[in-house]
């Protein structure tokens, strides 16, 4: 046996697992197909890494079993994440909605925390090691990986699969975990891109494209959930945090509702303005909330050049409908190349929630994004990766 355990994938979960195992005196070898570890950490949060969320709990996750992550989140809490990084000189600064970023550091420093601890503890990270096959032995596992065109074989008694989800193949993402799971009869919850921009095609395409670059604070909702954050118009559709959030809950063919003026009631605003100055144009009123470009674009649907006093009841109702219940039917999403995470994954029923060990294959552990655990936007996905990495390390 080459080590106490082998971890496949030196991403967020695998790195945390290696470090925590090292603290417990367990020797692991990390196998990573990229040239360097932590590729997604490096690009996360625009290079700043939103590494946790102060409010993270099971409520901000999508999974067939919403209770599954609770044990991991109790074993390694948000406070544990914060203290872990503080110990290594990274203190958190809240940007918005509980999202913590390194105060005066960035994503590179986050990865360096892990690589330096691994070096100190003698945990080996082997890069350019593309794992091709796992053989389940009577006792342990035989792992075959490709290193510069040559097959290398390792064996270990315990194995961790932390190969992440499908988004962004050029950053190293593979379907390795899903393929292995299928081959070994483990159930999979259907996967789809999540936290992903949505596309608009057809007759509405031009209207959205003209607004490319405009960002508007909105409440975006479907029948199940709503998010109040910015939406960003692009030349192919919609992006921005509120759209990424709803995309995880959106299914093809569904309409997304957008309240373009949350926290206000346009009917009331028109009423008040009529009393103050009936000559005010609707466009003047809307420009108090939107860019001129956006108000002009709303002219397609609204009588923006009319004085508020001359608006009829029917027009006011239609304005309220457009402003507060703007309906969009996206054509699709931008796919795994632009998604931040994968929805679905290995069914959590196959895994012990306490140890993250596979119920059918003893001594095999799964953590991070390859499982059917998908967090909202805002540092939740890293918290899951850290917590699951910690839990697995305790059981190696
Ligand atoms: C653009 C972008 C920005 C993001 N920003 C944030 C953010 O700010 N906050 C947040 O919480 N989440 C963010 N996320 C999501 C977050 O990065 C992931 O949820 C998290 O990295 C998952 O951790 P993981 O360890 O499961 O997988 P990963 O971090 O993806 O690591 C898996 C590793 O396994 C390797 N691998 C795959 N197959 C093999 C194989 N066969 N052999 C060897 N190695 C293999 C991969 O190369 C990869 O390095 C972002 C994602 C993206 C794409």
Question: What does this 3D model show about the protein?
Answer:
It is a single chain. With 396 residues, the chain is of the alpha+beta class. The protein folds into 2 domains: 3-193 and 341-394, FAD/NAD(P)-binding domain; 197-334, Beta Barrel (Elongation Factor Tu (Ef-tu), domain 3), CATH 2.40.30.10. Helices cover 30% and strands 25% of the residues. The protein is built from 13 helices and 21 strands. The protein has helices at 12-23, 39-43, 70-75, 78-87, 107-121, 176-183, 205-209, 241-247, 266-277, 282-287, 292-298, 313-324, 380-394; strands spanning 3-8, 28-31, 52-53, 61-62, 92-94, 99-102, 124-126, 130-136, 141-147, 150-161, 188-194, 198-199, 215-221, 226-234, 237-239, 256-259, 326-328, 332-333, 341-346, 364-366, 374-375. Strands 1, 2, 7, 8, 9, 10 and 20 form a 7-stranded mixed β-sheet that branches. Helix 1 (12-23) packs parallel to helix 5 and helix 1 runs parallel beside helix 13. The protein starts with a strand and ends with a helix. The mean pLDDT is 97. The structure holds flavin-adenine dinucleotide.
